[in-house]
Amino acid sequence: MWYSSLIILAIGLVVLTKGSDYFVEAAARIARQFGVSKFLIGLSLVAFGTSIPELVSSIIAAIEGHSGLVVGNVIGSNIANIGLVIGLAAIIGLIRTDRPTLKLNGYIMLFATLLFPIFAFNGVVSTFEAFILLISYIAYIVFLFRFDRQSRDVNQTKGQNCVSFWPGVLKDLLILFGSGCAIVFGGHLLVKEAVWFAFFLGVPESIIGLSMVAVGTSLPELGVSISAVRKGYGGMLIGNIIGSNIANILLVVGVSSMIAPLHVMPLTLFYLVPFMIFISLLLLLFIKNNWDIGKMAGVSILLLYTVFIFIVFRFKLA
User: Fold this and answer.
1) Contacts of 188 (CB under 8 A, 6+ apart)
2) Tens of pLDDT, residues 108-117
3) How far is 68 from 53, CA to CA, in rounded Å?
4) Of residues 128 and 204, which shows the higher confidence score?
5) Nearest to residue 175, comparing CAs of 11, 12, 35, 45?
6) What's the confidence (pLDDT) of residue 12?
7) Could you give the CA distance from residue 66 to residue 62 in angstroms, rounded to a whole number?
8) Which of 48, 109, 134, 215: disulfide with 254, CB 3.0–4.6 Å?
9) Residue 213 buriedness (CB in 10 A; 0-12 / 13-18 / 19+)
10) Average pLDDT over residues 123-145
């Protein structure tokens, strides 16, 4: 019955929200313990953790031969991460960013965003191209840690008492793992019931990958980002979104294409992908303007995303 699905939907939302709170706090404590910047934690650990729903759902879709669902999920998630997540978070509170690190990683996000249509221009992302994407992601993660190590004080963690240091780190890693599982579980419940409601209301399946599934798998990013902005961790928020968008293209598309070549429809390539590029450029433009994202920028991005979703549903552009 519809009311039981609504209850499960609410449970998923609660689990996702509380899991996000614990995840952000544990990640911030680990960052302080090791002297690693919150921005780097957001770009790597948090971004990977919140990209797990996209990765898992895309792997399953690739195994079952649903290329459209994989592509729609990735493109829709990247658009939702900026339009929905950044938009709502900026409305809730001012998002302050880390200028030098953000400039570099923002351009890497743009590079990954542009790399996808280049590889998909012939309508297929091949196994060889998937290998390039995966190697690029591994190189990016290695680069992140090398860059962060060079830019911070290497003596920051010296002199700490190992007796008190490692138990605290292990405890936070357990919390990180447990809360990460809660985020994925909560997101899974929300996706499952949201898809059921979509079918119940008669929404075509071709649009679900771009809208319902994409928004559903972006809920972890939304939960973590709202928690981060409330706690004043703007660097972690932006790092999470940029890192997640990079992971969605380089890692998720890479792994999925290694399982089976992804077929990209012309409509996706010439309408949806350009919008993904446009909204990514818009985010970098807003940030570069004054190095923070305020309410007006948040409203503008969210409104743009709403219009985009309306057009997709109205003209069935998926």
Assistant:
1) 12, 53
2) 999 999 999 9
3) 17
4) 128
5) 45
6) 75
7) 6
8) 134
9) buried
10) 90
Contact 193, 5 (CB under 8 A): yes
Beta bridge partners of 96: 292
Mean pLDDT of the chain: 79
The partner residues of 95 in beta bridges, in order of sequence, read 293
In the three-class reduction of DSSP (H, G, I as helix; E, B as strand; rest coil), residue 124 is classed as strand
Mean pLDDT over 172-177 rounds to: 87
Structure-block tokens of residue 242: 């940029």
Q: Which residues pair with 180 in a beta bridge?
A: none
69 Cβ partners below 8 Å, 6+ apart?
57, 58, 61, 208, 209, 213
Q: ∠203-75-305 over CA atoms, to 5°?
A: 70
Query: Does the structure show a pLDDT above 90 at 292?
Result: no
Tell me the chain's radius of gyration from C-alpha atoms.
Answer: 19
Q: Which two tokens stand for residue 88?
A: 């709502």
Q: Which amino acid is at 312?
A: V
For every residue of 64-96, which 3-state class applies, written as one string? CCCHHHHHHHHHHHHHHHHHHHHHHHHHHCCEE
Amino acid letter at 300? S
Specify which residues 124 forms β-bridges with.
Answer: 263
3-state secondary structure of 263: strand
* Domains parsed from the chain with CATH numbers: 2-151+162-315 (1.20.1420.30)
* pLDDT computed for residue 218 by the predictor: 75
Identify the three-state secondary structure at position 232.
coil
